[in-house]
Amino acid sequence: xxxxxxxxxxxxxxxxxxxxxxxxxxxxxxxxxxxxxxxxxxxxxxxxxxxxxxxxxxxxxxxxxxxxxxxxxxxxxxxxxxxxxxxxxxxxxxxxxxxxxxxxxxxxxxxxxxxxxxxxxxxxxxxxxxxxxxxxxxxxxxxxxxxxxxxxxxxxxxxxxxxxxxxxxxxxxxxxxxxxxxxxxxxxxxxxxxxxxxxxxxxxxxxxxxxxxxxxxxxxxxxxxxxxxxxxxxxxxxxxxxxxxxxxxxxxxxxxxxxxxxxxxxxxxxxxxxxxxxxxxxxxxxxxxxxxxxxxxxxxxxxxxxxxxxxxxxxxxxxxxxxxxxxxxxxxxxxxxxxxxxxxxxxxxxxxxxxxxxxxxxxxxxxxxxxxxxxxxxxxxxxxxxxxxxxxxxxxxxxxxxxxxxxxxxxxxxxxxxxxxxxxxxxxxxxxxxxxxxxxxxxx
Length: 444
Prior knowledge:
alpha/beta, 14 helices
């Protein structure tokens, strides 16, 4: 390890590693990680979650095809499913670190903090310095400050459960809770969800969210809307949950009410970097108020969705900035957002609620897809889509989808919008048929 680097990066998740790899060959780089190399997504987030969904989706597909060629719905063996997930996640930290080292990037595992704008202390003794620093430390689950908060578990705990509890309660009805609740329900748990109001997933089209909630209720999930969790206590058989309206019992309590920026242990006061309650403050070049310090990924205070591909995009951008390959402000493409599950809700571009509020500016076309061949073939009885166009140019500026395979159309429409394809250009294409993509020509 050197004592001075061109660039030091705090965080070895998708943002930090994207920046590090982008600088290889041009800059000397040190990547510091105080937790798991690879970051939240592949270790205890989106990747392991979707691996668990592999079994859930397979079970649901079989259930949909009962009396249509298949008999008997399989059960999920949680122990085997968890072993399958761990086979993948157990390799992430060492694989990430090895990949960085093989590329000539130095690494340090442990706590580190700023001494000033250029000097960083590693652990208790070693001091290193850099011309420029990138903060990519991500976020962590925010815990409610209530009596019994030590009994609350996080999404990371749920995604590494050795055995599935009989009764699980999720606090919050955001993306994380809704996705994990569906997994738990399909795997055999009784599931409750407590939410502080009656409108979960506000970023998504509310008609689709209402359908999703109803599907989850039909599957046996119980929602407790307009309630706040006030306390948790342990009893002989599990836990007692006290809200401002009722008392509930559960075997396991997962809290997912938001995430906080991982910046509090960096001693940013020593280098003068400014933060807000929502993260590190940056400008349109992802530069902090200190000209030699940048921040990328989920640690920053931003309106853009805090998603893995967004973090990687920002990492690549800052690498190009530091190598003087660009001087332009960051320009984001359209960013799709999706809730994964046996019923997926996805949105990209102009949202449904915004389009409805501005009828003079946007036109919304709604489609019931349930009888379309693609969805009838797999017995998807809730499939719907909405295409949002600019009222003047007729250009597609937004798309919403509700379907068990919604991610495929969502990505197709994201490409259409990023490339600004016209209806005529789409009609001039030939897609593999029959497929989800081949339906694109009938939706535009």
